[in-house]
Amino acid sequence: MRRLNDIVVSCAITGAIHTPSMSDYLPVTPEELVSEGTAAAEAGASIIHIHVRDPETGEPTSDLDLFRTVAGGIKAETDAIVQPTTGGGMTMSIEERMAVVPELEPEMASCNMGSMNFGLYPMSEEIEEFKYDWEKPYLNGTWDHIFTNTFESLRTAFSMFDEHDTVPELECYDISHLYNAKHFVETDRLDTPIHLQFVLGIHGGIAADQYHLQHMVDTAERLFGEDASWSVVGAGRMQFPFGTQAAAMGGNARVGLEDNLYLERGVLAESNAEQVERITRLAWEVAGREPASPKQVREFLGLKGQKAVDF
Question: All domains of the chain, ordered by start, with CATH?
């Protein structure tokens, strides 16, 4: 598949999986998110993946004013690619999740490639006392929740991406999601080259196992060849092992507190930048690959540039 000599490091700074009771270091307010995103970019991340949260409670939200504040704040401080989510949170409709694309017209945004169970409920068993009333029902509600990404919603999403010249990063939580992407390429709904993000370790998706990562890579190679590049998310403790494996295989890596709250076993990461610094060091030590600059990544992925966004 397509590759750069340097490694594309993405950083997902807060997400919608972890709750404030799990770590005091999880950024919540717009000011915290801008600060964390800026520091992650300075540490070597070329793509900053953003969700937003209610600044009072930390609950995930689709508030477009908050997205604009955070995206604009990071853009003002760095030349990193600001990548909003269209995955949103467990309680959001597809329409709420997608609204950020026409609102901000970003260079790039995430796009989830299939419906799935998305079980966060095991996390609630590990928390003795919650800070906010919304957290436990939010986690336990995933016993009976489908993360919906139908063929119709994907068709609508790709039309929206095209209309606003936004490149989708295709989030693939299982092998079937690669075949969904192939379908949209074959039906001319999705232009190549594409950029795939393999997400392993979510309860309901493919497990975080090195053999599964190899299987995802091999399948994508057969389906797309030089029409695709790839990156990997290893949820939880597999974040750094998978990032290192990707570096050695010619792929790319995502880190950040959305995916993993820890720096090492039993030690909470105090910032997103700590995780970026660690993966860039590992990529160099294992594969001799330096972090790619935002300019390199824009050229590689065919992005329109900061001046063309609406934030």
Answer: 9-308 (3.20.20.70)
CA atoms of 250 and 75, how far apart (whole Å): 28
d(CA 241, CA 214): 13
The residues near 162 (Cβ < 8 Å, ≥ 6 apart) are 191
pTM for the structure as a whole: 0.98
Which tokens hold the place of 82? Answer: 């600001």
Comparing CA positions, the residue from 57, 65, 59, 110 lying closest to residue 84 is 110
* N-terminal to C-terminal alpha carbon distance within the chain: 33
pLDDT tens-digit series, residues 53-77:
999 999 999 999 999 999 999 999 9
Q: How far is CA 122 from the centre of its chain?
A: 21
Strands, DSSP E only, in the chain?
Answer: 9-12, 47-50, 52-53, 60-61, 81-84, 108-112, 116-117, 146-147, 167-172, 194-200, 228-234, 252-255, 262-264, 267-268
SS3 109: strand
Instruction: Specify the 3-state DSSP secondary structure of 199.
Output: strand
203: DSSP letter: B
In contact, 250 and 4? CB cutoff 8 Å: no
For the chain, what is the radius of gyration of the CA atoms? 18
Q: Compute the C-alpha angle 208/40/50, nearest 5°.
A: 70
Phi then psi for 205, rounded to 5 degrees? -110, -170
Q: Note whether 246 and 231 are within 8 A (CB).
A: yes
Instruction: Report the C-alpha gap between 90 and 59 in whole angstroms.
Output: 11
For residue 99, count other CB atoms closer than 10 A to its CB: 19
